[in-house]
């Protein structure tokens, strides 16, 4: 299954902590932070790991930087409780795919 998620401040700007209903989940960044939107990202709750472009150049521990066209793959339903961080301006798009081998 694959679908596109749209985050906007005046609609769905974020997602509460949840597990995906998949063995593996893949998220693909479809547009550019700082140009198309501000804010956004994902936080893996149990690991206190944030995927957020705000931290570029700050050398913060446990921070990963998304780039348009890049993807992340992670275990969906078992270990990776995660939440979508608020998009504060513009519109953020991600493609999401759930894999159940």
From TrEMBL:
Pfam families on file: 2OG-FeII_Oxy
GO molecular function, one term: procollagen-lysine 5-dioxygenase activity
Domain Fe2OG dioxygenase: 1-101
Superkingdom to which the source organism belongs: Eukaryota
GO cellular component, one term: endoplasmic reticulum
InterPro entries: Collagen_mod_GT25 (IPR050757), IPNS-like_FE2OG_OXY (IPR044861), Oxoglu/Fe-dep_dioxygenase_dom (IPR005123)
Gene3D superfamilies according to UniProt: q2cbj1_9rhob like domain
PANTHER family, A to Z: PROCOLLAGEN-LYSINE,2-OXOGLUTARATE 5-DIOXYGENASE, PROCOLLAGEN-LYSINE,2-OXOGLUTARATE 5-DIOXYGENASE/GLYCOSYLTRANSFERASE 25 FAMILY MEMBER
Name listed for the protein in its UniProt record: Fe2OG dioxygenase domain-containing protein
Organism of origin: Ascaris lumbricoides (Giant roundworm)
Organism lineage string: Eukaryota, Metazoa, Ecdysozoa, Nematoda, Chromadorea
């Amino acid at each position: 299954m694959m679908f596109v998620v749209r985050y906007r401040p005046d609609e769905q700007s974020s997602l509460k902590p949840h597990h995906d209903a998949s063995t593996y989940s893949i998220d693909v960044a479809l547009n550019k932070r700082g140009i198309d939107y501000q804010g956004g990202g994902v936080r893996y709750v149990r690991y206190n790991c944030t995927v957020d472009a705000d931290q570029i150049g700050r050398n913060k521990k446990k921070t990963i930087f998304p780039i348009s066209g890049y993807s992340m793959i992670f275990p969906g339903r078992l270990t990776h409780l995660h939440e979508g961080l608020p998009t504060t301006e513009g519109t953020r798009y991600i493609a999401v795919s759930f894999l159940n081998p």
